[in-house]
Amino acid sequence: MSLTGQQLIGYEYSQQGKQTFTGINPRNNEALSPIFHEATKNEVDLAVHKAHEAFKTYRRLSDKQKAQFLEKIAEEIVEIGDVLLDTASLETALPITRLQGERGRTVGQLQLFANLLKEGSWVNARIDLAQPDRTPLPKPDIRQMEVPLGPVAVFGASNFPLAFSVAGGDTVSALAAGCPVVFKAHPAHPATCELVATAILKAAKACQLPDGVFSMVHGLTHEPGMALVTHPLIQAVGFTGSFRGGKAIYDAAVRRNTPIPVYAEMGSTNPVFILPEALAQKKQNLVSGLTGSITLGVGQFCTNPGVIVTESSSESEAFIELLTSSVESSPSGVMLTAVIKNTYQKGIELLSMNPDVNVLAGSLPHTSDTEVSSYLLETTAQAAIENPALLEEVFGPSSLHVQAQSKEEVLKLAESLQGHLTTTIHGTENDLREYAELIDILTQKVGRLIINGYPTGVEVTHAMTHGGPFPATTDSRSTSVGTNAIYRFVRPVSFQDLPQFLLPEALQDSNPLSIWRMVNGEYKK
Amino acid sequence: MSLTGQQLIGYEYSQQGKQTFTGINPRNNEALSPIFHEATKNEVDLAVHKAHEAFKTYRRLSDKQKAQFLEKIAEEIVEIGDVLLDTASLETALPITRLQGERGRTVGQLQLFANLLKEGSWVNARIDLAQPDRTPLPKPDIRQMEVPLGPVAVFGASNFPLAFSVAGGDTVSALAAGCPVVFKAHPAHPATCELVATAILKAAKACQLPDGVFSMVHGLTHEPGMALVTHPLIQAVGFTGSFRGGKAIYDAAVRRNTPIPVYAEMGSTNPVFILPEALAQKKQNLVSGLTGSITLGVGQFCTNPGVIVTESSSESEAFIELLTSSVESSPSGVMLTAVIKNTYQKGIELLSMNPDVNVLAGSLPHTSDTEVSSYLLETTAQAAIENPALLEEVFGPSSLHVQAQSKEEVLKLAESLQGHLTTTIHGTENDLREYAELIDILTQKVGRLIINGYPTGVEVTHAMTHGGPFPATTDSRSTSVGTNAIYRFVRPVSFQDLPQFLLPEALQDSNPLSIWRMVNGEYKK
């Protein structure tokens, strides 16, 4: 299929503005075709109004109908064929095999939410039956369930052009909740975005869904995105990207006349703590595991292990020596965009210039104009506690080894941490029992605690929390991966003394959907 | 017991500041004893630091231990005896019988949360078992549950000196979640606050809880409250009160370096729609029901029915005539404070001066310096649609009748509504079937939809939503009444590949707590 470079405003193409841009091949910095048109304020407004209108119909759809839609989207994405992988690879420099996996993840995610809807219990149905004879006043019948918030704005991430983009976790959980989506395409992979958006719209048409249930607008500047976030009819925002981007969106959203929730996943450094006995016992294993996790996808994961903490010892010295040569010899790679590459290099330079930081592996200038090498840097726990900026994320294939002098210093460092998506502890059973306090402290700092594993690789499943305290996200009570992501886009409503014929199916006496419900405080099906 | 007028900072009394104030008897505007000391910034800081320290222990308590604490608080509140009711009545002018009921509600609420903890399934335990043989990569074991956020600041309401105050819904749900509470006492009932705070601290001591699990600070000015909200160690805020107060707290909280969630319940006008057939069939019934709901507790409820919508007809005219004389003849009453009384009178004056508004019942000046009378005012749907300010809350015993010309105008008015805590529809089966669209529109606007009832009277139960879209609250995804209120003060954490001995009991294989859990997507016990 040929690409248009236009906005997809519901079922219509639109090209009102004069501002244009193109995708860039990060492998050679050359412009790609076609030319894309940045959305005007008016186009954003049209898309949101269509979403608002579509919501009137879409919110009343049964869970089964929404499940069909999600399944049809999955089908249509597969239907695009290899051109989707080729396009994404051209725009992002990610290898085809990785994109194959990511497509599988995207399709699997759609299926997971479709299954959640088909099962139906996610709506949290609660029924407290009336007690007409209660004194001094009769107790009314009260029933509660989740209802969708309304049109949602979604901003995709550059580093997952499929799984966290147009048909990614935010879009899918919003659509599953019953919310129309206006998607802001990422300018680093606009062609990939158009392919997937077209697939979603084909699926919407096939399911005879209202015009506006999904729209996509383009933008190289921040303007279309800000117009979206501040539009009075937008009810929530999903975002994956940088702290700067996410925080700017949050700030705009909470200053609206009617503030709205913003679910911004802004990444973190995902500290890895290696405890003494584990360090002594599995040095080589840790070296290969960590090198893999640091350099995977040229280090472009929100869960990249950017900080490694050990306690000073001869074992630790030997380990770091091995890790240094492993990182040193890891292949260079092409990053997603020139901006990301420059930001990575600047971040490394800034850290290197700090008198408390040593560069162990990696070297500037890089092997080519477009490739970057991996870095291992080193500092002390004391320096990191005194200057927490040392622990801020440098997005890319680098990690900072933090040397602590004692267990006490490890605990102090842990206490000083800000919010992170994940933290990892490597330890033997003895280690873990001895460092129980560390585990307790770290649980307060993260969305996910990993034992003897690596933070990269986020399972899309029921028990996943891909989130964490600020500044990892703007809402620690939520996750952007896994089925719980749906709860970001709903709110509870109680129905008091409604006759059966007015009640949603999920709350009717006969339980026609056969879902789990809490009846007078007890779970029943 | 004698009152001190001091801050209760954990288990210690404190009186560092020079600023003082007293409670005022609203029945005669005379100062009450003792003299209360406004908290200094330093005292607020001390209380928060103690809460932060206490959290280290309190968050690790079992649900059963927390349940014992809540039950002990309930016991200690009852133990205070009649002096609690007398003190509250003196400070608020609320009658003893009402306060007896409110004490029952407060104690019942503590018991409800204790039962929730004893049952234990509230933690949303989810387990996705490992698949070591999965290709291309093994699937790790992932388990998720809710953990407490940390120290919570709670602001009580003036209109519920027991049930939404020191040991009210916000405090109880935060303590149940595992969060220490720093309570900002309401200056309109400081003596009542000290009595209840002392009961909580007695219970905490009896349960050998850490110093700082509960503190209470006083303040007549906004300063101690703002110091609390902006304190870096405070992790969430619960508030019940005016829009102005709640919005100021929200604005301060989202502008912090680390933004925190604010759950402000700011009231609403709770529109009541009376459909034609019901209006014709149960005029007298509606008149007495509405008069009761409007004037209950001198109209000082967040769920007071401040707007009544009917369609123009001879039946509607007859109904309004009856309602007018009913409201006119309802007794005058003393409001909670002179400020609330003056704000009520100003609100009525402002509405009365609007050329689109007629005063049907009620008259200025009032029967006495301290009492107010009830009001019924009237406007047209067209005027209300053009000027939504007409529908803003006037806190007190008044209601605005909105006359619509047609069903279409009723729908248009409903569409124009902002967020409310509740809405009520009176209708026969025929009415309700004919106005299905109205019900659908209104569901989008509120936290609770009531059929053929009255909005005052909020059941404390599992299925209650006491919340709603902005400006009714600052977070429509939450409730401040009912067991779901606990979820405001927790966030999910995932545990990946933890050995059994490190897992919280709720997530261990053997399910030692016998709670409901989602295992590989299925609910099990």
UniProtKB/TrEMBL annotation, chains A, B:
Residues 17-468 form the Aldehyde dehydrogenase domain. Keywords: Oxidoreductase. It catalyses: 2,5-dioxopentanoate + NADP(+) + H2O = 2-oxoglutarate + NADPH + 2 H(+); 2,5-dioxopentanoate + NAD(+) + H2O = 2-oxoglutarate + NADH + 2 H(+). The keyword Oxidoreductase applies. CDD domains: ALDH_KGSADH. One of its GO terms (molecular function) is 2,5-dioxovalerate dehydrogenase (NADP+) activity. It comes from the Bacteria. PANTHER family: ALDEHYDE DEHYDROGENASE-RELATED, SUCCINATE-SEMIALDEHYDE DEHYDROGENASE, MITOCHONDRIAL. This is 2,5-dioxovalerate dehydrogenase.
